[in-house]
Amino acid sequence: PDMYPGNCWAFRGSQGYLVVKLAMKIYPTAFTVEHIPKTLSPNGNISSAPRNFSVYGLDDEYQEGGTLLGQYVYDQEGEPLQMFPVMV
């Protein structure tokens, strides 16, 4: 709901998974990722921001694998809100 440090989906360690279940099947054209800017970070760095990430389309939350929709890199020097087009 806001851009304050700590109000996020934090992952423990350097890897994590997030599953978002939607009410109906969609065909996405892009994804956005938002992280606080360095100026709002208490220590001036955003090393916790995602870097390399992949997005998969699943038929259900228990499916292993899925359809790779793209592999992306979040630019920590870029804008806080970044959009990534579907690559497949």
TrEMBL record:
Question: Which PROSITE patterns does the record cross-reference, listed alphabetically?
Answer: SUN
Question: Where does it localize?
Answer: Nucleus inner membrane
- Main subcellular location: nucleus
Q: Where is the SUN domain?
A: 1-88
Question: Pfam families, from UniProt?
Answer: Sad1_UNC
InterPro entries attached to this UniProt entry: SUN1-5 (IPR045119), SUN_dom (IPR012919)
- Record keywords, A-Z: Membrane, Transmembrane, Transmembrane helix
Q: Transmembrane helix as a keyword?
A: yes
Entry annotated with the keyword Transferase:
no
Gene Ontology terms: cellular component: meiotic nuclear membrane microtubule tethering complex; nuclear inner membrane
Q: What is this protein called?
A: SUN1 protein
